[in-house]
Design a protein that fits this description.
By secondary structure, the chain is an all-alpha fold. Helix content is 71%, strand content 0%. This is DUF4405 domain-containing protein.
């Protein structure tokens, strides 16, 4: 078993890195199928295992890299480049997220009466649907996000009620 793991450590690392590279670039440019998001996240987790096996397989050469300046310098530059993202503006209120997240946040910042017409219903009907789903709508002028929070539920649970049509 050990020989199989060692034999496939580097090829697995290369294959998973290529998947991560392609899906990461596609996600950055917002192109490709929505499956790329799940592929990128999950197979990047598997890449951690492959990298660990690769590191184990090539431990002696890695020790050589650890003694020189190139690895130390590369790690410092990478750390500084990563840290910059904590201090630089993210490019808008959405924090660099896809536009749909920004739209959802804007919708959740509105009261039921503002959102209801866009959903093809009235404020009263929407408020009744929310109440039937366990949301405490004490003040219909409160934003949907506050209604969710005051009800002890997530905004995603409230969004589910918004998009589910009554039967």
């Amino acid at each position: 078993m050990r020989s199989i793991l060692l034999r496939y450590a580097t090829p697995s690392t290369i294959g998973l890195f290529l998947v991560s590279l392609i899906t990461g670039v596609a996600l950055f440019f917002h192109v490709g199928p929505s499956a790329f998001h799940g592929i990128h996240e999950w197979l990047s987790m598997v890449l951690i295992l492959a990298f660990g096996l690769h590191l184990w397989r090539n431990w002696r050469p890695m020790l050589h890299y650890m003694k020189g300046r190139p690895l130390a310098l590369s790690l410092v530059i990478t750390l500084l480049a990563s840290a910059a993202f904590f201090f630089l503006p993210a490019g808008g209120k959405g924090g660099g997220r896809p536009p749909a997240f920004g739209l959802a946040m804007q919708v959740m910042a509105q009261p039921p009466a503002t959102v209801a017409p866009a959903l093809g219903t009235t404020a009263e009907e929407l408020t009744a649907r929310l109440a039937a789903a366990g949301f405490a709508v004490t003040d219909p002028a409160r934003p949907l996000s506050e209604i969710a929070r005051a009800s002890g539920k997530s905004p995603m649970a409230l969004a589910r009620v918004l998009i589910d049509r009554p039967r």
